Amino acid sequence: MELTLESQGYLEALYRAYLEDPFSLPEEWRRYFSALALEGSRREPLEDGRRATPPLAEAVDLAFLLKVERLVQAYRELGHLAARIDPLGRERPRPKELSLEAHGLLREDLFRSLPPFFGAPTLGDLLGRLEEVYLGPVGFEVVHTEPEERAWLLSRIEAPWPKPPREVRRRMLERLMQASLFEAFLQRKYLGAKTFSLEGLEGLVPLLLEAVEEAARHGVREVVLGMAHRGRLNVLAHVVGKPFERIFREFEEIFPEGYSGDVKYHLGFSNDLTTPYGKVHVSLNFNPSHLEFVNPVTLGRLRAKQDRFGDRERKRGLAILVHGDSAFIGEGIVQETLNLSRLPGYRVGGTLHVVANNQLGFTTLPEEYTSCRYPTDIAKMLSVPIFHVNAEALDELWFVLGLALEYRKRYGKDVVIDLVGYRRRGHNETDEPTFTQPPMYALISKKPEPWKVYAERLLAEGVVAEGELKAKEEAYLANLESEFARVKAEPGPVVPHGLSGIWQGYVGGPDHLVPEVDTGVPKEALKELLLRLSAVPEGFQVHPKLKRFLEARKEMAEEKRPLDWAAAEALAFASLAVEGHRVRLTGQDALRGTFTQRHAALYDYQTGRPYIPLQHLAEGQAEVEIYNSPLSEAGVLGFEYGYSLDYPEGLVLWEAQFGDFVNVAQVYIDQFLASAEAKWNRLSGLVLLLPHGLEGQGPEHSSARLERFLQLAARDNLQ
């Protein structure tokens, strides 16, 4: 409970009830008011020998309690600024608002008793708990969330934290150790090769694995991961379960003819992981160098998986996005992705964002790459909780992860974990970081590996034994050596995975001639569909100007008028839907159509209620979804590209409001659509609608840079 002016009335009511019948109150309140009565008993006796019961204003020092409440609020709002979240141990200035003096409190007040709703018997006890919760290895930013959510979060943050079970702590230590040993092994075997090492942030590996298990406990069966290159090889090996032998073979960079391949730290993988709560399919997206541009692709893939399984509540799948600190705040695609999170056409039930924060952007320090206090401040636009966690504090990280996923499940919203670590090497393994950050790297050079820090904690508590750790280390390294030796003994090309699962039976590339397919529909069927597209429910008030639009479609069905473009498009969608193929179209003003031509949704002229004829064609038809997108090209195109990867049998379309708008989303054209087959053996059936041509409005609205598409279409790459 937060103490406010309204609390005074609440306290007075409790106090009156106590005076009338002490046993009408819970025991903790009886003890509190009994202590106040004891204070009253020390007063001078009245003339008749009785001792006066003090009035509430005197018995309860409301001014004192309000000061205490302001102190509590200061810790909740500002404690994160002084929390010990930096594993390099650098001091952070403590806000003056966290002092007793700032709120008019004195040292002697530490011994004064408090009402039960403060959760501590005295101010001194309360202060100790506030220091433990808010100035430890976790910095909480939750006061900007919605009132109900804030109350729920605070009730868990300020209650005693559960400690990870013994077996969980042992498991996290082993995963942390393996992540560190793997990086060191790569450094030895592939001297000078770029791996974009995770060293300094190895806590990401146990975090992601525990996230998969915890999500499985909540009923999640699909996890889709998106991340840039920092730590990707480690995540592939230890989280997704990509075989070591395949990773080592990719270092040889031998590719079969017709397959360009990609650098190993761009590649993806998928696998079934077994948890105590059932199997979870985990996919790590392939990703080009454009860091955060994989974000909406990841969400689009998850949305397609949810739609495929009829998961309308968005509970079956979880998207996890691993961001870089400077990229999270620096790249606009992040904001576009965050903005999609609660829109009906793009919602996936809440994304877990993990910022792999090594406190550097290549060679750039935070004060040079963000105008905000934290790179995560961009996420405050969603009013969701942000947890800053010291990457070496595994026990606390486990608690925060559980809280984050519980919040996501309860409220269906995004949540952010800012995992604060460091980068042991340069941006890549050939860089010299001391050129640009000598003081920082002087501290890093003295740091033991994170797993040794955590091992020391568990050894001291008797959770693990020294000999046991040594045996696990030796066994793991022996396995790596064995896999490495096999690759060296049997060198060979990296063979891309064939098309399997939902893509089985599809073909692509210049080596496969795609046969001509008869896509015609009988005339009578088209007439019937056009009549249904012209009908509205009884009592529906059509806009006066659209009555002629619907009449014209009836005339087209009766062959009294030729089909126009919009009617032909509607028939294409309708005929696919009744044959069982899902249709999904998104774009700015896609429902009405930029040129007032589509009118996929009709709006009741009196009530504004929408009616979409394409959704009412026949019993058992496939879904037809048409959404007005936000004013975003890149984010929405990325989402639809991702959707197309997991729904090949559906028609997935993105419409640029004007053709030239696609230029803003060129990364997705070049780095994903046009090159994914050659790089990653991944196909997409995404359709781009790029309306508008040379019609007198100058060059701006007239160029979708068609020459680029013609260049990219060589060897049947695009149709």
UniProtKB/TrEMBL annotation:
Gene Ontology molecular function terms on file: oxoglutarate dehydrogenase (succinyl-transferring) activity; thiamine pyrophosphate binding
One record GO biological process: tricarboxylic acid cycle
Cofactors named for this entry: thiamine diphosphate
Ranges of residues in domain Transketolase-like pyrimidine-binding: 563-719
Keywords: Oxidoreductase, Thiamine pyrophosphate
EC numbers for this chain: 1.2.4.2
Record's GO cellular component terms: cytosol; oxoglutarate dehydrogenase complex
Pfam families, per database record: 2-oxogl_dehyd_N, E1_dh, Transket_pyr
Protein's recorded name: oxoglutarate dehydrogenase (succinyl-transferring)
Organism name: Thermus scotoductus
